[in-house]
Amino acid sequence: MSDLKSLFFHLLIRLRRSALFRSPAHLLPASYILLVALLSTISFFLPVYGSSRQISPRNQLISSVHTVYKSLGIPIDDELGLKKETDIVTIDKGEPGLRPAVKVQTALKGQSIYTILTASGLAPAEVHQLIRQLKGRYNIKEFKVGTTYELETNPDGTFNCLSWHLNPSDMLHLEKDEHTGTLSFWKEAIETDTRQTTLEGTVQSTLAKEMSLKGHPGLTAQLRKLLSSKLDLGKRLPVGSRYRILFEEQLVENRITGTGKILAVEISSAKRHYNVYLFTDAKGNSAYYDEYGRSLQNRQMFVQPCSYSRVSSGFGYRIHPITGAHHFHGGVDLVAPVGTPVRAVADGNVIFRGREGGTGNMITIAHADGIHTIYMHLSRFSPAVGYGKKVRQGDIIAYVGSTGSATGPHLDFRVIRNGRTQNPMIALKEDAPKLALSSTDHAGFMARVSRYHTQLDKRPVLVAGLSKRRPTTL
Predict the structure, then answer these.
(1) N or C of the chain: less Cβ packing under 10 Å?
(2) How many domains, the chain?
């Protein structure tokens, strides 16, 4: 009897903490589900007193809990159906269903956010709810005649998202979750152009101090990583040492907004020379080399898929808090706010992009050497990353959400190697093997170095086609 009470108590706590109780609109259906769960549980207390049924009350209660959890979308088993670590993972390929349609339009005389949203299918009450959320945060009166906006609709023609530029560097998105009906908004910071620029001079004390004095402290961390095997940026260089650095800057409306990657570094003194060049070989692998084409460092095989506050569920076996079952989890759950950018951890091709049962919105990327990475419970996909697209390490592919069988916003991240699950937290620390240039790649490398020398002698150059979008969640 006490065992049943304990199970029922845990169920109540889990239900109360679920996403259903976080919104007034969900209180009624959530209360109904809780009542059903209560009545179902009470019905299983009765056999304790004199029933001759062969099935134990605990097993029947566990079965009832499974049913209630599934109705709430709370995962009982691994989302991919794995039972143990040695199970083979079947990689889904394709893009199920039709893709949303996006139209770029201009606000006409007599149009407003209200009229556009209602004409797109939102009820007046929904529009007022959304406008109340925006009140005090953004002045929607600035949305006026002539404003260019993007209207995204679902395959069935229903409203999905309305987006427009608040200013040259920020875009506001108003969206409705097609599955939950939840209305929300978030702001995206836009980086529109990348410029290649040079920095040169004579070191008076340390290279780190020199970067700070020249107004580019953001270069210090990169330089320290690139030159760690050659020199200490915190120590003085010989008097008269000269440096030349070619790197990328991000700009919006000709205003510098950030420092990008370093392309080339040349440091020379009376006795030593330190040269570092970025080169991408014929296979698409990027790494840094010295002037002779020798790899300087191990490349990081994977980067973090997103910024997160904690790991709510790790990789491996665990005891389910309600059922007590031995339960395998084939990935890691990284807790982060809805809208947090999700990035490709390595170069690869998108082989699945869509919604898949308990995984919710999901992306699968195929990498070299039989490696696949999977990203689950996404709120939305990046418009720039479609099915079949090639992505680079660090590209934004989607945004954190809580779709599918998720009880709260998080990214379920997985690494599959030759069909077997790998511990993602261990994989994220792996280094890729050093790259050796083939004779053909070496010729390309020397040509690239020659172009770097030409660029180091020129003024900053604005590079077209390198635009990036980096959203931030409110």
Answers:
(1) N
(2) 4
For the chain, how many residues are written?
474
CA distance 217 to 211: 5
Residues of the domain holding 223:
193-299+433-466
User: Residue type at 262?
Assistant: I
Final residue of a domain: which of 191, 213, 236? 191
Nearest to 245 by CA among 231, 259, 229: 259
Q: Are residues 356 and 456 in the same domain?
A: no
The amino acid sitting at 96 is: P
Give CA angle at 288 (286, 294), nearest 5°. Answer: 115
> Tens of pLDDT along 238-284?
778 899 999 988 776 666 767 788 999 998 877 788 899 999 888 77
User: Across-strand partners of 354?
Assistant: 362
The CATH number for 394's domain is 2.70.70.10
For residue 377, count other CB atoms closer than 10 A to its CB.
26
pTM of this prediction exceeds 0.90: no
Is 247 within the bounds of a domain? yes
Last residue in a domain, options 72, 92, 116? 72
Per-position DSSP letters for 422-443, written without gaps between them: E-HHHHTTPBPPPP---HHHHH
Quote the CA–CA distance of 356 and 297 in Å, as a whole number.
39
Q: Pseudo-torsion of CA 347, 93, 471, 255, nearest 10°?
A: 40
